[in-house]
Amino acid sequence: MTILDGKALSLKIKDEMKKEVEELKQTRNIVPGLAVILVGDDPASHTYVKMKAKACKEVGIYSITHEMPSSISEAEIIETIEMMNKNPNIDGILVQLPLPEHIDSTKILEVISPKKDVDGFHPYNVGRLTSGLDSFVPCTPLGVMELLNEYHIDPKGMDAVVVGASNIVGKPMAALLLNANATVDICHIYTKDLKSHTQRADILVVGVGKPGLITEDMVKEGAIVIDIGINKTEDGKIVGDVDFEHVSKKASFITPVPGGVGPMTIAMLLKNTIKAAKGRN
Questions:
Q1: Distance, CA of 16 to CA of 30 (rounded, Å)
Q2: Of residues 141 and 42, which shows the higher confidence score?
Q3: Which CATH homologous superfamily contains domain 139-262?
Q4: What digits encode the pLDDT tens for the residues 163-175?
Q5: CA–CA dist 10, 97 (Å, integer)
Q6: Which of 76, 168, 172, 231 is the most exposed place for a label (fewest CB within 10 A)?
Q7: What is the C-alpha separation between 204 and 176, in angstroms, rounded?
């Protein structure tokens, strides 16, 4: 069994990004810029945004966070995004989800210019991804593909099962695996007999936010297991959706939680922001 070490790979990617940022400064006088919109006081969202800002600073990306109260109107958020769409020094715009209930997330995300959509959530980029065209890809699934590539795992011809069908993780993950010529099965809350699907998987990707959902008997011998879930137990421990202790005995490759997919998500955000900066006119 080999651990897919996202923490180590993310550090390697950050070193590469640092060089790319320096080259952009030297050759084109461009400092990549990322703007984050943070609405409300959700502790997890604040933590994620701080981590993103720290990572930007480490590689030399300019970042700014627009903190807004949870009572803010949809119109005010849209106005801020439109202002950033026009700002030539901002390459990437990211709206930290979830947003308060009175805000229509879909409407907000559609206001972001597709050229600055470094989260890859705009329908334009979703459509291009589905069509196998170059686009901004959501950071978590993109990070998973980078991990597979780093460990020379080619999904071509493999049976891949994605558990979770969210727009942010499950659906783009399935699209990427399909584009890589895997045979893809998507499972979700209405799937009958989940185990009958997961037991067939050469590559099993899980991201639903349910600790211990995937047990040893649900995984076939030698499977590659990617755990995207992040859950906090009552005693404060961070765990994934996979019973790591037992499943790791059967898997050929497996991601730990923490230290697997999580660090890769932020590394891919940096990568997408630099990609956007390179596309400046």
A1: 17
A2: 141
A3: NAD(P)-binding Rossmann-like Domain (3.40.50.720)
A4: 999 999 999 999 9
A5: 22
A6: 76
A7: 14
Instruction: Please state whether the predicted TM-score (pTM) of the whole model is above 0.90.
Output: yes
CA–CA gap between residue 95 and residue 121 (Å, rounded): 10
Chain centroid to CA 70: how far? 24
26 as an active site residue: the answer is no
Whose tokens are 């994620």? That residue is: 48
Q: Which of 91, 119, 241, 243 is catalytic?
A: 119
| Residue 280 near residue 27, CB atoms below 8 Å | no
Which CATH code for domain 29-118? 3.40.50.10860
- Give the pLDDT of residue 44: 87
DSSP string, 131-160: TT-S----HHHHHHHHHHHHTT---TT-EE
The question of whether 18 is a catalytic residue gets the answer no
Catalytic annotation, pick one of 5, 52, 243, 275: 52
Domains 29-118 and 139-262 equal at CATH topology level: yes
Query: 5, 91, 96, 117: which one is catalytic?
Result: 96
List the Cα angle 188/191/195 in 5-degree steps.
100
